[in-house]
Amino acid sequence: MAVQEELKKIILGLLPQVDCVIGWGPGPDLLCASPYFMRRPEEVDNFLAGPMATQNTALYLPEYKGKKVALVVKGCDSRSVAQLLAEKLIAREEVRIIGFPCAGVADMGKIAARLAPHGEPGEAEKAVYGEKELRITMAGRELVLPLAEIKADKCLRCAHPNAVFSDHFAGEKAAGNDDEFKDLAALETMSLEDRFSFWEKEMSRCVRCYACRNACPLCVCRDHCVASSRDPHWLTQADGVSDKLLFQVTHALHLAGRCTGCGECQRACPAGIPVLLLKRALSRAVEGLFGHSAGLDPETRPPLLTFQVEERTIKEKAW
């Protein structure tokens, strides 16, 4: 049984027990899926999984607090659920987790670049997903895109393609990759001045839409965000690079030891700014200092949300 059909069977079995099952369904065009909220059996027919299941379904869990909900998750999605549980932002008894092995999700930017000579992604007349390729028909012509070439960069280094914990699991577990933080290497070879110039140039394209914040499943303090607070007044509304960079650095610091690397912040950015680099730099630092990777254990609170007189992995200097 294909994984998608197995997932549908699990969803149908859970529907009577929950208020809603959150997964993915048809999007604005054939190459885009959207978050999909299933409440009736007939809605399950439109459920989608696979390369187009890009959005992190954990984003919606805090909105369903007090209700019972089932969630279909990839590996990175499940890590976000685990992190929400670890921080007591959701209740375990209210959530049923349906996991499946993720072979990687498609990067719409890469797809658009490959289709550019033939038209826009929204003009696709047909799209068929195979195990190793995506076949797209445009203007009567079939184009074959190997999935390995259009896969999101985060998937190339994903160490946890399967749900890290689940109540139900469909399919056979997939092997993960080693994350060697190679994406940070180019930045780290720059001087501090060049590195700052790089971020100034990137942030100059920011339109301050805060899609990066809104797409993040762990950014749960939006009602008190520094971007909108007026008491204290942290940021101005000026269109300057300094305020934009201050927001992104603050956002990254708030996610230090909490970011699960799902990449939704960067995927949602309409300007294509590599904001995930900031989060990954801090994630690596926290892992090195505290031996902690976010979202692997729903019982372990992130180190920057706890206090210990003596840290197990940090040796104090003798003054």
Q: Structural class per helix/strand content?
A: alpha/beta
N to C succession of SSEs: HEEEHEHEEEHHEHHHHHH
User: Could you give a short account of the major beta sheet?
Assistant: 5 strands, mixed
Number of β-strand runs: 8
Give an overview in words:
This protein is an alpha/beta fold and 319 residues long. It has three domains: 125 residues, no CATH class; 43 residues, Nuclear Transport Factor 2, Chain: A; 139 residues, no CATH class. Helices cover 30% and strands 13% of the residues. Strands 2-1-3-4-8 form a five-stranded mixed β-sheet. Strand 5 and strand 6 form a beta hairpin. The N and C termini lie far apart (64 Å).
Question: Which descriptors apply to this entry?
Answer:
319 residues, alpha/beta, Nuclear Transport Factor 2, Chain: A, 3 domains, five-stranded mixed β-sheet, three-stranded antiparallel β-sheet, 8 strands
Summarize the structure.
The chain is α/β, with parallel strands linked by helices and 319 residues long. 30% of the residues lie in helices and 13% in strands.
Protein topology:
Elements: H1 3-14, E1 20-26, E2 33-38, E3 69-73, H2 75-86, E4 95-99, H3 108-115, E5 126-129, E6 133-138, E7 141-146, H4 147-150, H5 153-156, E8 168-169, H6 185-188, H7 192-203, H8 211-215, H9 241-254, H10 264-268, H11 276-290
Parallel strand pairs: 1-3, 3-4, 4-8
Antiparallel strand pairs: 1-2, 5-6, 6-7
